[in-house]
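One such given next:
>
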Amino acid sequence: MTAFFAWCTKPVGRGGRWRGVRTSVGESAPEDLGAPTFHALFREYFGQMTRLAHLLGADDAENVAQEAFVKLHQRWDTLSDHTRVAGYLRTTVVNMSRSRTRHLRVVRRTPQERPPDELSAEVRAVANWEHERLRAVLANLSRRQREVLVLRYWLDLSTAAIAETLGISPGTVKATTHHAMENLRRHLGHEPGGER
């Protein structure tokens, strides 16, 4: 991650003219001094985007978040409104997580070449009881329901922000949230200690 962080703060420009790209912490391009720096946005949103990718099922959440920031950096010059960066990052992370989970389904269907006892220490550390329970509960929901719940209850996004992130109508967000909560309650009611 250090190499990526250094790359984020690397000066970019042609012939000494900056094109809206920040050079380092706190330094901004002359044409938009009030806009946030890329470095500051990275520090503010990287943890959130990593957690979002993890909750959406990406097995390499940190890589997904880093790739989202790479895509943001590549589009930095073309962004007219830097206040919408968080929405762009969330949408990118959601789409990349979808791709990763689709890929994981294919990979998991193929026979494993190594026995389960040879899993890395990192995988064993992540696979604790709470993590597995959360993933199991979320896995019982449809992809759309899982995405809406994570965006609503973990990121605390409004209905309008979720609709924008997923590219659906606010009414669909409300209906999906309702159905997801019903399914979640039904699933938790079947687990030991799930009924109250």
